[in-house]
């Protein structure tokens, strides 16, 4: 897994990325697969999405991946940073665990004997009971495969499970550090914490079989992180033979007087939504692509990106930390129907997914908002308890960040009180009305939110946009032309930036074009089978709207 810093120096880590043996098994039940009978007749890149490759494009079914590794005796931990969307992991033919979800990391441990070991992963990209978080009607193509990196960690007698670094006070340069650990043999262990060469702590702690150690530190010359001066610091924890490193930024996020604040200063969010998709790589994001996307965000003059509609690649978040781009990080979802939303299996899967999302991303200073349930039934009485539960869970595991969700219909929403930030998806000039109606509709939304008693909460237009077939134009500037999209988004940005002062955040829908689902109802509404509301096309070539939005966003810079 490519990151911008070395996560472990003491713990032996083997990257298993590369070319694995591969067999596409098709419409087969994973319970019926005899591993020793699989004929590996092909190879596949890991990370990679098999259904984005020419040979298996658009196939839905079961696939088998296999690799071999030599290990020393002892506890081994396999770390998968993302598998789409269901998988079963085997070690020398023995099943270790199943995982459903994609977009979040999971681990599985085994006590190995010294020698060669064979790792097999059955990967399923079909929809159904095994993958309760994924549904075919979502407006994006659900690529399948081992889409993010894989590592093998060798663990000793005690190891660090996670590290949480919170800013307590920017003014006092104060942070709180929580180290979660597991110990095979409880007893004394050396704990040392260092921040960029400043030794913060060295002591002996008494470990139980698992637990957390929390300490606070004042670091006098630690520079704060901001969008204009994104200073990062690196914290290293050593516990016994193990270690873990994380980067963080000293910064406070809050809401006050209808604005999001960063280190006490109101900040206006100007940016885009972004899908992690590419015609050739699917949901796998090669580092070169992530660097290019962040370059494009900076060029656009954006200070904000919403990770629609699932947790983003950790390297992308590293790059946003460095670029000072503020991120809305949300759990996977798209217009789940009420029946799905209220199914206990789904709720449990979402809760586990939220925990994994936060654990992986909580130390990124760029993340200023957690989100859930894009455009789900927040208007229904049955939907409300689920919003309460999921937003409540986010607050519980990370009280330092505001929470939100993007509503599809703000006028009938019943959950606005549960969010710290009100976020509204709206498509005037596209799904209803005309370009000329845009300013009045945005004002109407703002007036409604205030009338409902939420005038103190920041208001974000979390999605707005228009389709444009790349390169398409006509004499009239009709729907689907680049000219129409540019005109609509110019009107939106002008109004948000200069025409009013209630809306303090804008997420243009969307940075890049992306392939939509194979579900017919949706595919028939998307020329080329692509959601083409991108400012750039799926190969990141700018459309007219990119230049129009860029010119406006850059006025703020
Ligand atoms: C919704 C949804 C997006 C996308 C968009 C569109 O607002 O949240 O994911 O589907 O509509 O293009 O229609």
What does the model show?
By secondary structure, the protein is of the alpha+beta class. The protein has three domains: 18-148, Jelly Rolls, CATH 2.60.120.260; 158-248, Immunoglobulins (Immunoglobulin-like), CATH 2.60.40; 254-556, Glycosidases (TIM Barrel), CATH 3.20.20.80. Helices cover 20% and strands 35% of the residues. It contains nine helices and 32 strands. The protein has an eight-stranded parallel barrel with strand order 23-24-25-26-27-28-29-30, surrounded by four helices. Strands 3-2-4-10-7-8 form a six-stranded antiparallel sheet, with no helix packed on it. Strand 29, helix 7 and strand 30 form a beta-alpha-beta unit. The longest helix has 18 residues, at 344-361. The two termini are 33 Å apart. The relative contact order is 0.11. Bound molecules: alpha-D-galactopyranuronic acid. Alpha-D-galactopyranuronic acid is lined by residues 139, 308-309, 334, 374-375, 425, 463, 509, 531, 533.
> How far apart are the first and last residues' alpha carbons, in Å?
33 Å
What is the CATH architecture term of the largest domain?
Answer: Alpha-Beta Barrel
Residue runs with pLDDT of under 50 for 5 or more positions: none
- SS field, number of helical segments: 9
* Overall helicity: 10-25%
Broad shape: globular
User: What's the total count of β strands?
Assistant: 32
> Sheet bearing the most strands, described?
8 strands, parallel, barrel
Order of strands, widest sheet = 23-24-25-26-27-28-29-30
């Amino acid at each position: 897994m490519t990151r911008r810093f070395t996560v472990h120096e003491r713990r032996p880590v083997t990257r298993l990325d590369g070319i694995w043996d591969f067999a596409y098994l098709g419409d087969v039940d994973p319970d019926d697969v005899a591993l020793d009978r699989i004929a590996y007749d092909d190879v596949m890149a890991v990370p990679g999405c098999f259904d984005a490759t020419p040979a298996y494009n658009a196939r839905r079914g079961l696939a088998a991946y296999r690799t071999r590794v030599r290990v020393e005796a002892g506890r081994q931990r396999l770390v998968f940073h993302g598998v789409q969307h269901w998988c079963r992991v085997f070690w020398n033919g023995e099943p270790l665990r199943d995982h459903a979800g994609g977009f979040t990391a999971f681990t599985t441990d085994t006590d190995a004997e010294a020698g060669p070991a064979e790792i097999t992963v059955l990967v399923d990209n079909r929809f159904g009971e095994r993958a309760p978080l994924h549904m075919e009607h979502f407006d994006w193509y659900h690529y399948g495969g081992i889409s993010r990196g894989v590592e093998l960690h060798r663990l000793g007698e005690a190891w660090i499970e996670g590290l949480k670094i919170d800013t307590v006070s920017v003014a006092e340069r104060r942070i709180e550090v929580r180290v979660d650990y597991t110990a095979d043999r409880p007893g004394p262990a050396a704990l040392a914490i260092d921040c960029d060469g400043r030794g913060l702590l060295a002591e002996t702690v008494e470990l139980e079989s698992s637990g957390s150690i929390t300490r606070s530190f004042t670091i006098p010359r630690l520079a704060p992180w901001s969008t204009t001066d994104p200073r990062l610091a690196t914290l290293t924890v050593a516990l016994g033979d193990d270690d873990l490193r994380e980067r963080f930024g000293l910064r406070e996020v809050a809401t006050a007087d209808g604005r999001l604040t960063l280190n006490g200063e109101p900040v206006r969010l100007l940016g885009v939504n972004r899908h992690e998709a590419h015609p050739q790589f699917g949901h796998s994001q090669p580092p070169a692509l992530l660097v290019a996307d962040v370059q494009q965000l900076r060029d656009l003059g954006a200070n904000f990106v919403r990770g629609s509609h699932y947790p983003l690649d950790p390297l992308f978040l590293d790059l946003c930390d460095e670029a000072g781009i503020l991120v809305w990080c949300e759990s996977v979802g798209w217009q789940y129907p009420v029946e799905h939303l209220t199914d206990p299996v789904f709720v449990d899967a979402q809760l586990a997914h939220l925990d994994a999302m936060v654990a992986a991303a909580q130390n990124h200073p760029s993340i200023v908002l957690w989100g859930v349930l894009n455009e789900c039934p927040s208007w229904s009485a049955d939907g409300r308890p689920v919003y309460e539960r999921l937003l409540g869970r986010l607050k519980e595991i990370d009280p330092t960040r505001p929470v939100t969700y993007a509503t599809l219909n703000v006028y009938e929403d019943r959950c606005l009180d549960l969010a710290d930030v009100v976020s509204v998806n709206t498509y005037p000039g596209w799904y209803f009305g005309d370009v000329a109606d845009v300013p009045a509709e945005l004002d109407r939304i703002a007036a409604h939110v205030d009338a409902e008693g939420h005038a103190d909460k920041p208001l974000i237009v979390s999605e707005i946009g228009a389709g444009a077939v790349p390169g398409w134009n006509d004499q009239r500037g009709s729907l689907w032309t680049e000219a129409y999209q540019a005109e609509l988004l110019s009107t939106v940005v002008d109004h948000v930036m200069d025409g009013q002062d209630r809306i303090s955040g804008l997420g243009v829908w969307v940075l890049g074009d992306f392939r939509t689902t194979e579900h017919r109802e949706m595919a028939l509404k998307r020329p080329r089978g692509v959601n083409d509301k991108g400012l750039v096309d799926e190969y990141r070539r700018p459309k007219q709207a990119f230049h129009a939005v860029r010119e406006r966003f850059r006025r703020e810079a």
